[in-house]
Amino acid sequence: MANVRLEDIKRRFNNVTAIEDITFEIPDGEFWVLVGPSGCGKSTILRTIAGLETATSGKLFIGDRLVNNIPARQRDVAMVFQNYALYPHMSVAQNIGFGLQMRKVDRKIIQERVMNVARSLSLDHLLDRKPKQLSGGQQQRVALGRAIAREPQVFLLDEPLSNLDAQLRDDTRAELKQLHQELGITTIYVTHDQVEAMTLADKIVVLNRGRIQQIGDPQTIYASPANQMVASFLGSPPMNILPAIYQNNGFDVSGQLLAIPAVVKEKLQLHQGHSYDLGIRPEYIKINTDSERVEQQLSANSTQNSGLLSVEVKVVEPLGRETLIRAGLPGSAVMLNIQVGGDMRLRPGDRLSLQLDLNQLFVFDPKTGDRIL
Question: What pTM was computed for the model?
Answer without folding.
Answer: 0.88
